[in-house]
């Protein structure tokens, strides 16, 4: 049962990486779209694509937090007392990002729009970096079981920086793939073309970062490297193949195929991390079993997850379905 | 609120910044809660009227309100997320030990919030292309999910006031009875109290905007409706809130004696306790303030001989500080005073309506209504101060002292400073956006031309029968 909750938690992490990641990436392209006039088409596309879904996508983060503090309280406090700097900065980034986006959407052209747009775009790049750094700190075993690990080296280390950079590039890649499809659905050929190039470039960069990561992990986190290259290897292979296939198909394939391949690539990378960690939650010192809450609590969480599958999944499908069929807006 | 605890020498150094930051971010977030929870209900009332009677102006109101709700919901969502982070960053002692009990109501809340976020989006962006009635019902899901979400958060909060359903061994929660945790002794009334408060605050705040318009001479159907719908909701909730509040006060007398003695500013246990209005507590004595003989005893137990436990009944080690007692007492006075003013305003409205059967336009009535939203906000904030500061020095009454819940790592002041700056920007931004929307709407018909994005930029093509108004 404990393992089941861990799986549920990891599904939340993957969902956040996919859906939240695509939103963050949209902010990355917003930031790099160019001046007010030149960047307008890109920003408009980002706006119409992200507006109806970002709050729902963002909820996965709350789901992860709540699950971890309820099911694995000790691990949660170990993380917050160690990684409080990147977590605090990510929280502030979320505020700046969400408010900036909502304000920009409601404002007419002018200074207000510019300021809120900049807040949205900058924090869209910084926030996933901090989350990636947090993941790196956890994965490399720098969070002690009792918490209060080193406030700086726990997230300013090679694995964390790799995690942060990888998070930003993966978000950008995902978003570019999604936005290519959105542009195509709007029959905006120049924009579709532009995002296809962006997806290609971001995919290449993300792949390169991942390759460099192999060496970083071998030097900095030998245990993680060992696990990834053994039990995690099949998942990473799938990820690499799907990522490559998505890149090759970008030009010819239909957006749903490319999108699915990109999503599988990301899912398998995150799942690879999960498998490599198992059976530990923190480094090699706190197992999932040791960190778990009493059974009654876990049962409640399983019940809640079950209700979520029954209620939330169809609702989400409805939302995405309406959005894809351009019924919203 | 910022004075919620003057530090004493024994306090851990992180306690003050952690507490101030929590108070500030909660106080900020709580302003937005009524808009997600109750404002959407008022929007649906207008929407329903529009669909049933073909009332164009009601439709315009519903559409515009949905736009305001979208902005405020977004800010509420992110400020709520910050609270999620803060529970771990500021209070690891709470989450690490009591997470298994205190945490799962938040999982339930997450479920409701998920539904809310999904259907709010469908509702807000569905005006033009969804069929009218299915579109309306997506809004109904939003208001219901809001109630469920509030209930869940209150379950966690009320559990801290009256913890139940857990077994602790060696400082670890080893057994949990989920139903007892969720439906703890304080849950039901506290939940109803907060729900009504949300409807009251949102009602008076929104009505206040249109009262201002009416005062300026805009007496059209649009402004009358914009005033009447939210004001009526608030006016109905107001007397109910008094009954609920009174019941809670007696329950607190019964089950949270420390909080009650702070509310009543009572140093020593006794009967024939006077009700103290105003005043502070310093060096173990009540200073200043007006005393009404026997009233506190009568309110608590219906007879002057009712005994009320004073601060002396609490062991010295866990007795609230003088400043905490004073704050709880004054906050309670402010809550009751502002609520009484709002009740009078609601009764005034009922009286005027009963005599003329139309939206009152008396100048003093409208002036009072225009400021009623701010008064309601003060009432809401002071109510939360009573329940939160009134629990001190405990985070979980009888189980966990706040000084043991607080984070010990790093320096929290820089984080708090950054939070203040960012929240100030968000508050200014939100007000600026709301003002911009209002100005755009008062210059009727021009908005479609200047909105760069969004659903209202292009003329409606195949929307519902009477969409494509100017909202």
TrEMBL record, chain A:
Entry-linked Pfam families: Cyt_bd_oxida_II (PF02322)
Single annotated GO MF: oxidoreductase activity, acting on diphenols and related substances as donors, oxygen as acceptor
Keywords for this protein: Cell membrane, Membrane, Transmembrane, Transmembrane helix
Membrane disposition: Multi-pass membrane protein
Residues spanning the membrane: 6-31, 84-103, 115-139, 159-179, 199-219, 231-250, 257-276, 296-322
InterPro entries: Cyt-d_oxidase_su2
Gene Ontology terms: cellular component: cytochrome complex; plasma membrane
Superkingdom of the source species: Bacteria
Annotated GO biological process: aerobic electron transport chain
Compartments, as annotated in UniProt: Cell membrane
Family (UniProt): Belongs to the cytochrome ubiquinol oxidase subunit 2 family.
Name the record gives this protein: Cytochrome d ubiquinol oxidase subunit II
Lineage of producing organism: Bacteria, Bacillati, Actinomycetota, Actinomycetes, Kitasatosporales
Automatic annotation (TrEMBL), chain B:
Pfam families hit by this protein: Cyt_bd_oxida_I
Residues passing through the membrane, by range: 27-48, 68-91, 103-124, 136-160, 191-213, 225-244, 327-352, 364-386, 412-434
Membrane topology recorded in Swiss-Prot or TrEMBL: Multi-pass membrane protein
UniProt main location, coarse: membrane
Any one GO MF annotation of this record: electron transfer activity
Single Gene Ontology BP annotation: aerobic electron transport chain
Domain of life, source organism: Bacteria
Subcellular location: Cell membrane
Keyword entries, A-Z: Cell membrane, Electron transport, Heme, Iron, Membrane, Metal-binding, Transmembrane, Transmembrane helix, Transport
GO CC annotations on file: cytochrome complex; plasma membrane
UniProt similarity note: Belongs to the cytochrome ubiquinol oxidase subunit 1 family.
Family matches, as PANTHER family: CYTOCHROME BD MENAQUINOL OXIDASE SUBUNIT I-RELATED, CYTOCHROME D UBIQUINOL OXIDASE
Name assigned to this protein: Cytochrome d ubiquinol oxidase subunit I
């Amino acid at each position: 049962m404990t393992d089941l909750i861990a799986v549920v938690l990891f599904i939340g992490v993957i969902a956040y990486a996919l859906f939240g990641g695509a939103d963050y990436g949209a902010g990355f392209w917003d930031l790099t779209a160019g001046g007010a006039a030149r960047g307008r088409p890109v920003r408009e596309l980002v706006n119409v694509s992200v507006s109806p879904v970002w709050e729902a996508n963002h909820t996965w983060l709350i789901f992860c937090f709540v699950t971890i503090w309820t099911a694995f309280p000790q691990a949660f406090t170990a993380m917050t007392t160690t990684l409080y700097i990147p977590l605090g900065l990510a929280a502030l980034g979320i505020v700046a990002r969400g408010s900036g986006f909502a304000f920009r959407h409601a404002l007419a052209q002018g200074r207000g729009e510019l300021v809120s747009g900049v807040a949205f775009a900058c924090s869209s790049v910084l926030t996933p970096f901090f989350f990636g750094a947090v993941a790196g700190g956890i994965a490399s075993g720098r969070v002690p079981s009792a918490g209060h690990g080193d406030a700086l080296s726990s997230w300013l280390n090679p694995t964390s920086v790799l995690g942060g950079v990888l998070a930003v590039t993966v978000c950008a890649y995902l978003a570019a793939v999604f936005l290519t499809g959105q542009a195509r659905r709007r029959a905006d050929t120049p924009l579709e073309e532009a995002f296809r190039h962006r997806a290609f470039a971001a995919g290449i960069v993300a792949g390169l970062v991942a390759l460099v990561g192999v060496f970083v992990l071998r030097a900095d986190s030998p245990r993680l490297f060992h696990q990834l290259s053994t039990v995690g290897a099949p998942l990473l292979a799938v990820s690499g193949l799907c990522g490559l296939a998505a890149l090759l198909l970008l030009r010819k394939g239909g957006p749903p195929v490319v999108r699915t391949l990109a999503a599988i690539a990301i899912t398998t990378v995150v799942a690879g991390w999960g498998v490599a960690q198992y059976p530990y939650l923190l480094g090699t010192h706190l197992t999932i079993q040791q960190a778990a809450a009493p059974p009654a609590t876990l049962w409640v969480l399983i019940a809640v997850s079950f209700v979520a599958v029954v209620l939330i999944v169809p609702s989400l499908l409805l939302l995405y379905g309406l959005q894809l069929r351009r019924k919203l807006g | 609120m910022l004075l919620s605890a003057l530090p004493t020498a024994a306090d851990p150094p992180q306690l003050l910044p952690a507490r101030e930051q929590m108070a500030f971010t909660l106080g900020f977030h709580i302003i937005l809660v009524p808009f997600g929870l109750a404002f959407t209900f008022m929007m649906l009332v207008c929407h329903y009227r529009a669909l049933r009677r073909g009332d164009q102006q009601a439709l315009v109101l519903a559409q515009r309100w949905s736009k305001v709700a979208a902005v405020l919901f977004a800010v509420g969502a992110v400020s709520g997320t910050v609270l999620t982070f803060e529970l771990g960053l500021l209070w690891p002692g709470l989450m690490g030990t009591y997470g298994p009990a205190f945490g799962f109501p938040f999982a339930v809340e997450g479920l409701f919030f998920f539904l809310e976020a999904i259907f709010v989006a469908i509702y807000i962006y569905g005006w033009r292309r969804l069929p009218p009635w299915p579109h309306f019902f997506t809004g109904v899901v939003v208001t219901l999910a809001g109630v469920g979400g509030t209930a869940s958060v209150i379950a966690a909060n009320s559990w801290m006031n009256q913890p139940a359903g857990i077994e602790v061994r060696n400082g670890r929660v080893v057994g949990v009875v989920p139903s007892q945790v969720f439906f703890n002794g304080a849950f039901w009334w506290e939940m109803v109290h907060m729900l009504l408060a949300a409807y009251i605050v949102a009602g008076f705040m929104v009505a206040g905007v249109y009262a201002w318009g009416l005062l300026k001479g805009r007496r059209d159907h649009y402004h009358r409706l914009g005033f009447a719908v939210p004001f009526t909701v608030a006016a109905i909730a107001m007397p109910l809130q008094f009954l609920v509040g009174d019941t809670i006060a007696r329950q607190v007398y019964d089950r949270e004696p420390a909080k009650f003695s702070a509310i009543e500013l009572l140093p020593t246990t006794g009967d024939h306790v006077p009700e103290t209005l105003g005043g502070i507590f310093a060096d173990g004595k009540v200073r200043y303030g007006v005393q009404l003989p026997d009233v506190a005893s009568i309110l608590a137990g219906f007879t002057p001989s009712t005994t009320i436990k004073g601060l002396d009944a609490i062991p010295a080690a866990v007795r609230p500080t003088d400043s905490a007692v004073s704050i709880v007492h004054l906050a309670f006075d402010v809550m009751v005073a502002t609520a009484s003013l709002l009740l009078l305003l609601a009764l005034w409205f009922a009286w005027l309506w009963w005599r003329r059967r139309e939206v009152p336009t008396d100048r003093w009535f409208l002036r009072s209504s225009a400021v009623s939203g701010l008064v309601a906000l003060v009432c809401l904030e002071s109510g939360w101060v009573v329940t939160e500061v009134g629990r001190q020095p405990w985070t979980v009454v009888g189980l966990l002292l706040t000084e043991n819940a607080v984070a010990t790592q790093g320096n929290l002041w820089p984080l708090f400073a950054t939070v203040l700056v960012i929240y100030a920007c968000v508050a200014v931004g939100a007000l600026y956006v709301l003002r911009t929307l209002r100005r755009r709407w008062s210059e009727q018909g021009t908005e479609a031309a200047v909105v760069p994005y969004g659903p209202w930029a292009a003329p409606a093509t195949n929307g519902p029968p009477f969409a494509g108004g100017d909202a």
